[in-house]
Amino acid sequence: MTRAALTSVVLVVLAVPAMAHHGGGTFDGSKELKLTGTFTGLDLINPHSWIYFDVTGPDGKVTKYRCEMRAATVLRRSGWRPEMFKKGERLTFEGSPDRNDPTSCYLNTIVFADGKRVDRYGQLTKVAPATAAERARASRAARRPTGEPNISGDWAPEQLVMTDPRGRGGALVPLSTVDRFKPGEGRIGGPRGAGRGGPRVIQGAELTPAGEKGAEQFAVLFDKNNPRMRC
Q: Which backbone phi and psi does 179 adopt, to 5 degrees?
């Protein structure tokens, strides 16, 4: 095999996971849709989970749909489990349509037959508002009995959630602080400081004046310069 041919094969192989990762920019957040259908399956996977359902049209034609959800790791930490859903049950899905795939959507809310609503960032289990460092200090000795460093246990950082539980706006904030904000308060990119006139805070770090200026010029949602929206 020539070097050029080998390079082509490598590029094709690397392109597969890149295309499989459905970036947020592929969905049209300016539009909302509501679909009612029959649950058929669930993939709790990373980097995005998917829920599948069939929608029957007025003409009796059945169309298979899927909605993109958060990663399996954060969904499980939020209390989501496959047992929540039963094959054949009727569910209503609220979200944003895919720009290219008419049978795909970005999930905001699931409404069950009994009226129960579960939002994208819904916390289905109560999580103690402790940081990962506090949990580690409380539950893990620094060393094992043999003298080796003890690296067992939960090292995950504190979960970030949207101040808008539907995931349509607001800002990402640590789970232990989300109750300090009104639903949807702040904006993607970080909420303002507690004084409302203070610097913007992004994951605990206050922006300098230069950072503030750069943030103001950066249109985060679907911005062509935002690598997160073009993954």
A: -70, -10
3-state DSSP assignment of residue 73 = helix
- pLDDT, tens only, 23-51: 556 889 889 999 999 999 999 999 999 99
DSSP states along 131-163: -HHHHHHHH--SB-TTSSB---S--PPPPEEES
Please list the residue range(s) of the chain that carry CATH number 2.40.50.140.
Answer: 22-119
How high is the mean pLDDT of the chain? 78
pLDDT tens digits for 149-181? 988 776 667 788 888 999 988 888 888 888 888
The domain covering 22-119 belongs, at the CATH homologous superfamily level, to: Nucleic acid-binding proteins (2.40.50.140)
Query: Distance from CA of residue 206 to its chain's centroid?
Result: 24
pTM of the model: 0.66
Place of tokens 């592929």: 26
* Residue 170 main-chain phi, psi, to 5 deg: 80, -150
Give me the amino acid identity at 110: I
DSSP run (H or E) holding 38? strand 33-43
Rounded Cα distance between 169 and 190, Å, is 11
